[in-house]
Amino acid sequence: MTALNRAGWRPEMTAAGGADDNTTFTGNRALMLEEALIFEIGSTATTGVDFDETAPTADLGALARTAPIGLPGLSEAETVRHYTRLSRQNYAIDLGLFPLGSCTMKHNPRLNEKVARMPGFADAHPLQPQETVQGAYAVIHELAEWLITLTGMHSVAMSPKAGAHGELCGILCIKAALEARGEDRRVILVPESAHGTNPATAAFAGFTVEDIPATEAGRVNLEALKARLGPDVAGVMITNPNTCGLFERDMKAISDAVHAAGGYVYCDGANFNAIVGRVRPGDLGVDAMHINLHKTFSTPHGGGGPGSGPVVLSEALAPFAPLPFVTKQGDAFRLIEEENAGEDHPQTFGRMTAFHGQMGMFTRALTYILSHGADGLKRVAEDAVLNANYVLRSLEGVLDAPFAASGPCMHEALFSDKGLAEGFSTLDIAKGLIDEGYHPMTVYFPLVVHGAMLVEPTETESKAALDQFIGALRSIAMRARNGDPALKTAPHFAPRARLDETAAARKPVLAWNEPAAAPGTPSLSEIGGS
Amino acid sequence: MRYLPLTTDDRSAMLATIGAASIDDLFADVPVDARLDGPIADLPLHASELAVERHMAALSRQNRAAGDGPFFLGAGAYRHHVPASVDHLIQRGEFLTAYTPYQPEIAQGTLQMLFEFQSQVARLLGTDVANASMYDGSTACWEAIVMARRITKRGKALLSTGLHPHYRSVARTMAKYTGDVLVDGDPSLDAGTDWGALAAAIDKETSCVVVQYPDILGRIDDMTALAAACQAAGALLIAVVTEPVALGLIKAPGEMGADIVVGEGQSLGVGLQFGGPYVGLFACKTKYVRQMPGRLCGETVDANGKRGFVLTLSTREQHIRREKATSNICTNSGLCALAFSIHMTLLGEAGLRQLAAINHGRAKMAATELAKIPGVSVLNNSYFNEFTLLLPTEARPVIHKLAERDILGGVSLGRLYPANANLANGLVVAVTETVTEADISAFAAALKEVLA
Predict the structure, then answer these.
(1) Contact call for B11 and A386, based on CB within 8 A
(2) What's the CA gap between B66 and B425, in Å, rounded?
(3) For chain B, N or C: smaller number of CB within 10 Å?
(4) Which contiguous run of DSSP H or E holds residue A114?
């Protein structure tokens, strides 16, 4: 881009921030390219889209939008360059190992992308007549069958838009089931190690949240849980494998106890990658579990979504599942929505979203599942668990691993900040990893471990990639133990140094505002105002 | 298995390092009776890329793609031309395969894009600020209702009958469990909106009034008076926009005084995708920002004084606040927001205005042609690119007969309101820039034939 960024990264600013002999005029460093905002380089008169026609004048009277909107445009050439340059400031799974615990950053196969763009899927409207979209219904149905079989459950609700939305779906099923029984149970029990979405979801649905105590070994305390169960408890939300990376050995006993007390068992399926093809949650007494298609089934995270969170359900909760869903009758697929729910699905708790769910994620996930098959998915879990244990055992000598003594971990290895030099923290290790070319692991979660570092390598890393990562993390851990001051200011080689998050929150700047222009500088609206 | 790099030798060496005799040892915590030994029975085994692609392509071909012929569906999802560079750019691995930007030093690409997206959305909707996106329009609409309850400490929401019935259903589902009171109903086949009646219905319990613009029947109206009525009564006006392209031509809800504006951003960049993933837009006045749900990106500086961006105000969110969070929402719709933002950047204000004008012109052309058919009339006095036709017979069977003639002729009100016989003859028709004059002629000829 030829325009200079008016708000930052001018050479004199770099010099002001500290002596730097490598200052350049542009602020660029060879392939590390700075990029201004579209509001600084675009103009409201520029468009990168050609139209074949001139529209007739509209007669909308007072409703016509006449005031300037202030939306800058760029030519196509500039647009491609702007976003390409921005993209290069991101870390991504395509660039390297992404050991973010509980997030399952695995390779995203490109066949998935190709399939999702097939015109019958990408260019179909959700309200087309049913006879014109039988293939789309077939995809939803085929994926649903896979999810049911892999989890050993009774049925599945496909429409939830993401994991937390799936949690909400499961919790609403529980609420509807209790209502059908005429019981007003208000309490949901959640372990302290749970994802924040669990208590937030239960509260959003009007439940009171109480903690389930944990054992010293990092698992649910079965006896304490049993003691708390009673006629006011609607259910439990348990993550299995849990966020300490451990399988809940007592899961079946927990389920049995909760059921005996009249409650339901919600399982957070965020960590399903550890057990897919090897353990069926249905065999452990689970009543509802969401499946993050963007974790276990490789749909891309896209910088924070879209996700997709189908919820598998037990026979007890299935009658309450949300609309719409697909059924098969003979060779034809049929969508059950508001008009036919009365006869086919009278107890449904209702609709959670417009249309039918994340179709673009269904095509990708089904493609991934078919590629692996039942044998490949089992291998996925095995290699994911093998890789995590390899990391755990390779690093336990240099990083504190609080639960290492309680046996093998599942698909993620948990470390704490114990043993670091005075003044050094988990954050310093995370930022040090950035300089070594890695995305940091999940930090400060789960909350039950001080300075937690949760490493999930996933099954799509080679041994060589793991060995390099282990070497890097070991070196940083040693620096943190020895108190290397350079670590405190890492990262040194990233596009940005540590950012001031406190200032961002204290005086939020959430949208572009044109700065007061230097005398003689035309403003954006003057350059291209309408 | 092409996605799994470990070799048999690797596995043996790693097991030796771990000190385990076999993979099964690593699953020792799983009770024996819950372990599956072999692959789950009755499921297919792994398959080549060629075989999987063949299977999925066969399923794709069982759908009539919108682009295969004349196409007039809208009702909350619109078919627009998406420039080729949009899809190319969102497939850059650095965008596609990145995580939520919790490590801002190595996520400035996503963060700057989100800041630009928020700024574009706020300007388009005529508000001060916007968040980094929601799941979709329908869930954004419910979140806005809950936000209004938090702000006003009142629990009754008045929903316009012109609100998309799916959005209304989502709100009804949630309200059952949260105790919110919703006043709602089906639309009547009038040329005008129910906004005057809504203004009269506001009382001291009312937290918000929710209107859609353009509404489910395609009607547009001035919300200035309604906004004033809300303000006078201490209630908030929530405007829902399911077709953001309209705002290139008609006034933005924020300009007319709406407090919260939510929407479905699918029209720009995202495509139809059989209903999802889409991108929810969420914007409001600055004074309400700390009550907003979802992620927010903000500007700051790094340790060297360089401008940079971070996720901010996260003390509203579930990973910090847990059960006290403003919402349980965790994901946004990042990649769809990127697609929206790129498409908007390509258009710019000039392009957006032209695109909107072309849509409106094309819709007027279609409305004029279709209204010439004996027994057919147009309900609306005013519309953007979508209007409601009144047929002399029930619209649902007509839709199927048109489909037999390879014309996808709109969304019947019978599909949207199956329980309401008064609406059965209504047909909602959307006409975007992708519709040609030949398409309109073909539709008119086929409809005439079907109705004859």
Answers:
(1) yes
(2) 24
(3) C
(4) helix A110-116
For residues A134 and A327, the answer to whether their CB atoms sit within 8 Å is no
Contacts of A247 in chain B (CB under 8 A): 27, 29-30
**CB–CB contact B61 A135 (8 Å):** yes
Task: Test A133 with B11 for CB contact under 8 angstroms.
Answer: no
ipTM above 0.95, yes or no: yes
Mutate to test the interface with A, among B63, B240, B336 (most CBs of A within 10 A): B63
Task: Find the helix packing angle between B165-178 and A163-181, rounded to 10°.
Answer: 60
Smallest Cβ–Cβ distance between B98 and the set A301, A371, A375 belongs to A301
A11 at B interface, C-beta within 8 A: no
Low-confidence stretches of chain A (pLDDT beneath 70): 1-22, 517-530
Q: Supply the pTM of this predicted model.
A: 0.96
Query: What 3-state DSSP class applies to A436?
Result: coil
Separate counts of helices (H) and strands (E) for chain A: 16, 12
Q: Tell me which chain B residues have a C-beta less than 8 angstroms from the C-beta of A202.
A: 323
| C-alpha distances out from residue A184 to A188, A208, B193, B452, Å | 12, 12, 40, 57
User: ∠ CA B78-B79-B85 to the nearest 5 degrees?
Assistant: 125
Residue of B nearest to A101 (CA): B99
B235 within 8 A of B208, measured Cβ to Cβ: yes
At B149-178, the pLDDT tens digits run 999 999 999 999 999 999 999 999 999 988
Residue A426 tokens read as 């988990």
Q: Tell me how crowded residue B124 is: count the other CB atoms within 10 A of its CB.
A: 29
Query: Model confidence over A152-206: pLDDT tens digits?
Result: 999 999 999 999 999 999 999 999 999 999 999 999 999 888 888 899 899 888 8
